[in-house]
Amino acid sequence: MKARYFPAEETQEIQTRAYWFFGFIATVLIVYLARAYDLQINQKSYFEGLAESNRMRVVPIPASRGIIFDRHGIPLVNNIPSFNLYAVHGDMQDPEKVLTRLAGLVSIDALPRLRKEFLDKKDPYGTIKIKENLSLAEIAKVEGHSLDLPGVQITAELRRNAAYGPLAAHSVGYVGEVSKEQLASERYQNFRQGDRVGQFGIEQAYDTLIRGVPGQKWIEVNVVGQELNLLRINKPVEGDDIFLTLDLDLQKVAEEALGEEAGSIVAIDPTNGEILALVSHPAFNPNDLSEGTSAGTLLSLLNDKGRPLMNRAIHAQYPPGSTFKIIMSAALLESKDALPSNSINCHGFFQFGNRAFRDWKKGGHGSVDLHRAIVESCDVYFYQMGNRMGVDTIAKFANFLGLGKPTGIPLASEKSGLIPSTVWKQKVLKEPWYPGETLSVSIGQGYVLVTPLQMAAMISAVANDGILYTPRLLLKSKSRQTGEYQAVPVATGAKVPISKETLGIIKSALADVVATPHGTAYGSRSALIPFAGKTGTAQVVVMKKGEVKKALSKEVNDHAWFVSYAPVDNPKIAVVVLVEHGGHGGSAAAPLAKRVIEAYLAPSKQPSL
Amino acid sequence: MPLIQQRRFDIFDWSCFVVTFMIFGIGLLTIYSVTSAVPFSLVQMPLYLKQVFWIFLGLIVFIFFATVDYHEIARFAYPLYIVAVILLILVFATGRTIQGAQRWVTFGTFSFQPSELAKVSTLLLLAKYFSDHPANQGLNIQKLFAPAGLLLIPTLLVLKQPDLGTALALLFIFFSIVFVIGLRSKFLIYLSLLSLMLVPFIGQILWSGLKEYQKDRILTFLNPAADPMGSGWHLIQSKIAIGSAGFWGKGIVGGTQSQLKFLPERATDFIFAVFSEEWGFRGVVILFILFTFLFWWGIDVANKSKDLLGILIAVGTVGLLSYYFLVNVGMALGVLPVVGVPLPFVSYGGSAMITNLGLLGLLLNIKLKRFVLFH
């Protein structure tokens, strides 16, 4: 072997360079040590903070929402367990991949939107809800792949459940995720994206009461976000239970009575303004909307031609038709422009200038006084009286009875209706009032618009001899912390400046509308309970002479009204029925009111449905 | 002969042994710590016990390399090299793909990483070549041509797997050996001028030759905050683990970053971060002292060696071990890009343990031979 065992000259140099080589290594080591010193000594607290926020998670604990009961304590809306799928962006190294994998296991609505929202998320350790209400099969699939799905969790939570589905949906409302617009407003400043708030009806109106205060827990998590230890907890404060004024049984009857028709039924206690039943059809199922992530459901409801999300009792405005004659009568009697005994002769039309205003009855009613004009709903009588009083007098008394302004029920977006006056027309339409328009107003047509709830408040005020109550839905609340009930103070109601005598005359006529064979609602009279009311048939389209209605589709058919109360003496319930395009008030609306009244006042005698 | 045996024992260097075993201890404790949550089972041996097994196996190899004359071993440099290259080619034909890279060859039930053999054989080959062709006035381009070619074959094969860590290790062995042999000053000037001119081209070629994930790692290293949830994740988590430990550390099994699995590859590539989190700055200092001693000891072996072959093997070994140490620690500290290389004697892994202990045996071999003057 050719090898050298003695150091030659050059190995000396080589060995010197070996020291240099070690010097190089040592230099790098010193740089590293300086780096370690910088990280571990200089920046210790900074990295400690990062390590803490890595392992610690503050997780909100939602407060369970209060249960909504009817007036007798039957739950209308409660909470049921639901398994929801959540994801935490920060626990995933490759969120895109995890999301794709997840979408392969469970069907996810609106995946592209969710994906975008998820990947753009600013707070990496905030949870984002992927899907609600997983089925057992879906839970099994996700749990089975949990190792491939870091940052994905299934959490059992309470879901809002309307026990009777679409029943009383418009009163109860629904719960949904707080929207971006809401988050920007002051009312929702303490909310976070994904929080649930009442978005409609009572859920929205009394949200602060029902919602409670969410708690928080501090937990230790591992890298895939699994909870390991509970470090600290602030328990949530549960929301208050609330009792509505609604009567479940009556609500059911009213829902059934209206059936498939579009329209509204409002039943109210005339002695205090408590709403006993409130129906608006078509309705929606709050459970479809409370599921939240299905934005498609909300959109399809919003785009539905039947407008199911509209509460027709407060959001829809209709011409009152002949029901307006109650107001006309009050105005007439109070303004002393005519005595109740004064008669006119009705030939079936009222000639005004070169235009003839027709009565609904072709041949006319003959000799008509106020009583008969109400009972038979004579248009010509009210054309004449309206013309005599002028629109501003009519408007004054309409306003006295609560029309033309919101009733003040604490539900969102209540419409105020419209009671026209000369001032209003000049201001809004920049035109003078034409006397001919007063004639249309006199029979509840023209510019006049009312909501069913306004009419309910109005007829209640007539029934209770002149006290206008603000309709209300909240009876009492119960704190789940203390178990104490808190009654809602009863509104005293406003005294309507209309005399008892005037109302007495009107009430006797309203009773005869149902009780006498000439009355427009005689066909709906009740053998069980005597009730009083006024029919209305509100024209949607003004018919030209000679046009035949039958040929036209349902959309132009008249709205049918019936405003009523019972019993005739000492009224305990006021019922307003509006059937959209139902036709005649007497035939389409009054029978429904009768069913509701009988169910409320004579439940035992009522034939089973 | 008994006299010689006696002398051998007397001059047996215990210091390197003690230091190496201390490093083993650190490694085993840390591996135990990151796997302690896994319940003990007879079917699945705990990782730290497996590592003990690898250490024993490595020690057998160590004894072999320490006792057989390294000149004899160096005679097999060429055949070993050829076997290594053939195996590297075989990897492409039959190799198993693990985490996107083909690095393993399987013989029956026995899996083997040819790149480990490539490291040892390339080291031996270069040491042998340069000691057989001494360059008295330093190396010039003609003299570098052949060894550079011999280096490039396994390097390119390894790079193709792709295993950037090992390819760079081979280059580093070459550069450390060439550095100590020395280049001719004239050649040194030419070379630096040439390389300066070629930097953009080579840079471009290297860059386009990298895989996407390798590019990502480098870009991430340059700006980890740009993508904290993607490739920057490892770097940030590692820095958090090290930084949050402070001077005293969080104690064994006490590191939140490692126990809660915020660190990846806790028993292998990121074991330094785990160790630092548990032991703090004092632990880092201790580990640095131990490795510095080991490197110094290796350089000392080179300087006491009485022949060029011994010097070059020793320098190459120190080069290889220091490369792994510096790249691994530099990555964990966030001063180098994420290149997945193990920390010698600490990270879990059989192949690397056997290779490293074999090389350490070779160093001891050279040290023991320094008094044997004649055959």
What fraction strand of chain B?
A: under 5%
| CATH fold title of the largest domain in chain A | Beta-lactamase
Q: How far apart lie the N and C ends of chain A?
A: 116 Å
Summarize the amount of helix of chain B as a percent range: 55-70%
Using only CA atoms, what is the Rg of chain B? 21 Å
**Class by helix and strand content of chain B?**
mainly alpha
Total separate domains of chain A: 2
Find the biggest chain interface: A-B, 55 and 61 residues
Describe this protein's structure.
The complex is a heterodimer of chains A (609) and B (375). By secondary structure, chain A is an alpha+beta fold. Chain A is built from 21 helices and 23 strands. In chain A, strands 2, 3, 4, 5, 10, 18 and 19 form a 7-stranded mixed sheet that branches. A 5-stranded antiparallel sheet of chain A has the order 12-11-23-22-21, with helices on both faces. Chain A has a 3-stranded antiparallel sheet with strand order 1-8-9. The longest helix of chain A has 34 residues, at 9-42. The radius of gyration of chain A is 35 Å and the shape is elongated. The N and C termini of chain A lie far apart (116 Å). Chain B has helices at 2-10, 14-35, 47-67, 70-75, 77-94, 114-132, 141-159, 164-181, 185-209, 212-222, 232-243, 256-259, 271-304, 308-332, 350-368; strands at residues 96-98, 101-107, 110-112. Chains A and B meet through α1 and α2 of A and α8, α11, α13 and α14 of B.
